[in-house]
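Section 3.1: Structural characterization of target chains.
Under the original work plan, the team committed to producing a structural model for every single-chain target entering the pipeline before any wet-lab resources were allocated. The record below documents one such target. The sequence was received from the expression subgroup and is listed exactly as submitted; it comprises 349 residues.
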Amino acid sequence: MSKQTAIANFNPNDIGSADNNIFGLPFSPADASLVIIPAPWEVTVSYSAGTAAGPAAIYEASYQVDLYDSFVKDAWKLGMAILPENKEIKSMSNKLRKKAEKYIDLYAQGKSNAQMKSIRKEINTACKELNAGIKKQAIKQMNKGKIVALLGGDHSTPLGLMQAIAEKYESFAILQIDAHADLRDAYEGFEFSHASIMFNALKIPQVSKLVQVGIRDYCEDERILSENDSRIHTFYDSDIKAQQYEGKTWKEVCQQIVTTLPDTIYLSIDIDGLDPKLCPNTGTPVPGGFEFEQVIYLVQQVVKAGKKIIAFDINEVAPGKDEWDANVGARLLYKVANMCMVSNGVKPE
């Protein structure tokens, strides 16, 4: 079935059908404009686990999302789809997570032995292989003309997508919405830790700038790195709130953020960038953060300014027993994906 035929036979006001793809949309990865890679991986999480269940939980919650988008006309017609979840990735994540927990316990006790070194090496190797696999899949989709997004999993998972994007674009900035700076060098000994994603991203020569928004939990080394690397521009949550307390509007703050960005952007969203009432089950929740609509408004301003979101990721959604986090994550994914496609010139057919 062609994309045009799928659109003609679809009722966006009906209930979401599980016979279709994510959000109940009638598109397959073959005919979608935007393809989502799920990455059910959480090996290096340092506090609470559960993010490996994020992609599947968001997929399930997506059928309850109404498809009307007031910012994007006929948004559902743009065409997005998610690839099948790789069961081997999730199985390997579960296996290595148990080893990582043992390693972290010994690490916290200040111990260092041959067993720890062996576990660390095994996990670093597996994470490197995961990155390579995601990069390969992303390049495959980009070669088909697709816009690619990644749905984690912990925040270590998008490195392969960033590396794939670097093979297509000579220069791009990363816009990171997050509670954490993620600038640690091999946190807890794990080279590809969720807390090291932006440290590793900065090793990609094509990454010209890192604009961080909402950061409120970080160590001194990360602050020093941010202050001494000219590529990094950090909008700390405390500074943002202080400006608002003193009279600045969110629109004015967003304009400050947008003016720091070049025209080509990779968007990386950690769900803990939101107020933890919206993501209470995420791995490392932190007081403070943004309301859902604040993040949507910021991304809208980026698109309105004519910036191109070349790819994006959403990570660290751990559904919990009530699935609330997945409910929020699904709506965030839908809105951001629509804006990403619009920024790339995709139009309803």
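The first strand starts at residue 34 and ends at 39.
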